[in-house]
Design a protein that fits this description.
This protein is mostly helical. It has one domain: Na+/H+ antiporter like fold (Up-down Bundle), CATH 1.20.1530. The chain has helices at residues 3-24, 32-54, 63-87, 91-102, 106-147, 156-164, 167-181, 188-210, 221-245, 250-260, 267-275, 279-307. The longest helix is centred in the middle third of the chain and has 42 residues, at 106-147. The two termini are 19 Å apart.
Length: 308
């Protein structure tokens, strides 16, 4: 069994447990938003702080891989907009296809990279998150502002505040400052944050499973197929090509491809709900990309490993 497949199976098993807990009623559906919020706002920043603050950046080269990932997201955004005349659908549905193609579930990929590539993989994905979260959010909000149906359009100030107050970005930035000055790398504070961080990924994976909506897979299947194809097949090819052109090789190349091949994130549904996207199509995309990524993720990373 390959390392990536060996890491993927327990991750999807935990996602399946989350779906089973919600489906069985042992954890009612109305409780899951609070669990997801706890993991996202309370625990994930602690995890990212702990990872970044303790990282030894003298032993790893991250800049080319982070740049490749950023250019990958920008390229996918440009590609989807260029394909709009060919997709032939209404504005809200197009925004959902766009979000499906460019959004990624960073915390799921963080868990996978940690199990597959160790500390270096964990650090690299964390840095990719802090650089690309603003890029992806700006692109998604811009597209929803133009083609969404909500009468409430976000202003520039609200978009900027949404990005700079993102708890994942704040956790990474705080960890970077601590790394530079040598703060909280040992001692009680570091131990508390590390303990909180270890609780983040299991809760996130359980919440991902609980959010799966299989009934949404029947919503506009041809558009769903376009969205999932762009995310799980086209995106890893684009990310891999850019990384290769920038000289990224080895595990770093595999991680960039892993980021490109990530399933969609539930945050896309929230943004579609707020800004007039097609919520049903977005829910279907998150569910379908999560399910099919169990097949495409190991294949994409295997190809990247052979190339690198």
């Amino acid at each position: 069994m390959s390392p990536i497949l060996g890491a993927l199976l327990p991750i999807f098993a935990v996602i399946g447990v989350g779906w089973g807990l919600r489906r069985s009623g042992l954890m009612p559906a109305e409780q899951w938003p609070a669990i997801s919020r706890l993991a996202y706002i309370g625990l994930s920043p602690a995890l990212l702080f702990s990872v970044i603050s303790r990282a030894d950046f003298h032993t790893i080269t991250v800049a080319p891989a982070v740049l490749a990932a950023a250019l990958g997201f920008l390229s996918m955004g440009i590609l989807v907009i260029a394909l709009k005349p060919l997709i032939r659908t209404d504005g809200p549905a197009f925004t959902s296809i766009f979000q499906g193609a460019v959004r990624w579930n960073g915390l799921v990929i963080l868990a996978l990279a940690t199990l597959s590539f160790g500390l270096d993989g964990e650090v690299l994905v964390s840095l990719i998150m802090v650089v690309t979260i603003p890029i992806v959010n700006i692109m998604a909000v811009s597209v929803l502002t133009v083609w969404g149906t909500s009468a409430k359009k976000p202003d520039v100030q609200s978009v900027i505040w949404r990005i700079i107050s993102n708890p994942l970005i704040l956790g990474c930035l705080a960890g970077g400052v601590a790394n530079i000055f040598g703060w909280f790398q040992t001692g009680p504070v570091a131990e508390v944050l590390a303990l909180m961080g270890r609780a983040a990924l299991p809760l996130i994976l359980l919440a991902v499973g609980a959010a799966l909506d299989f009934s949404a897979l029947n919503a506009r299947r041809h558009l769903l197929a376009i969205s999932v194809t762009l995310k799980l097949i086209v995106a890893p090819l684009v990310f891999g090509a850019i990384a290769w052109a920038l000289g990224v090789r080895g595990d770093a190349l595999a991680i960039v491809v892993l980021v490109g091949a990530s399933p969609g994130a539930a945050s896309a549904y929230v943004l579609a709900q707020q800004l007039g996207g097609d919520r049903r199509l977005t829910a279907g995309d998150v569910t379908a990309s999560t399910l099919f990524s169990m097949i495409t993720l190991p294949l994409a990373v295997w190809i990247a490993v052979q190339m690198g």
